[in-house]
Inverse folding.
């Protein structure tokens, strides 16, 4: 019983941190868009303002890492790790593959900005992979 | 690895959730171990043996 409540406490803490970071991300992107004019030269201030939302991305990654470290249920932790592996594989595969296409063909460059959202999409794919390979209980997870 | 978790649990009329609570893990973990989709770590295997008051080899058998 205690484990179930600890586990749900960990999930609640993860989602609360995630929501707070998401709000900070939206606010910082809006702030950067408001303060930085279009086609601004790459001054130190402009780069710093543009990097602020990037700190939130680091926060998201740390939040996921912290959840993995805190999880006491080894099976649920394995599910999360498998999701992260699928996400990482998908991201590296898509970026590396598209990078090669960019080398040899006149195709639009993949904006680096999309790497993290792609990884997050990979987590959702990982969840589906878990469900398909481990059955209904494989779809459980937090991130 | 094969295990007798389901049989041992049935003998005691425990649900998966009952066993999960005794082990301090999720019901999903118990289900995954019972159905052979997940092999528990050594510490968890020892906890399972403790809960059933049996030696590990009486619960888990190598294929």
């Amino acid at each position: 019983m205690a484990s179930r409540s600890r586990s749900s406490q960990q999930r609640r803490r993860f989602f609360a941190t995630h929501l707070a970071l998401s709000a900070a991300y939206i606010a910082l992107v809006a702030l950067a868009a408001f303060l930085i004019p279009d086609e601004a030269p790459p001054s130190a201030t402009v780069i710093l303002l543009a990097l602020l939302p990037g700190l939130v991305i680091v926060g998201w990654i740390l939040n996921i890492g912290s959840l993995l470290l805190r999880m006491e249920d080894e099976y649920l932790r394995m599910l999360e790790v498998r999701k992260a592996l699928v996400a990482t594989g998908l991201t590296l595969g898509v970026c590396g593959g598209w990078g090669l296409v960019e080398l040899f063909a006149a195709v639009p460059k993949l904006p680096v900005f999309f790497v993290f959202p792609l990884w997050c999409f990979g987590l959702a794919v990982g969840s589906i992979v878990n469900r398909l390979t481990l059955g209904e209980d494989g779809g459980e997870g937090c991130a | 690895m094969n295990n007798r978790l389901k049989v041992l649990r049935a003998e005691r009329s425990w649900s998966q959730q009952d066993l999960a609570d005794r082990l301090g893990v999720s019901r999903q973990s118990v289900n995954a171990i019972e159905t052979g989709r997940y092999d528990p770590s050594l510490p968890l295997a020892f906890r399972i043996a403790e809960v059933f008051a049996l030696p590990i080899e009486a619960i888990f058998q190598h294929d």
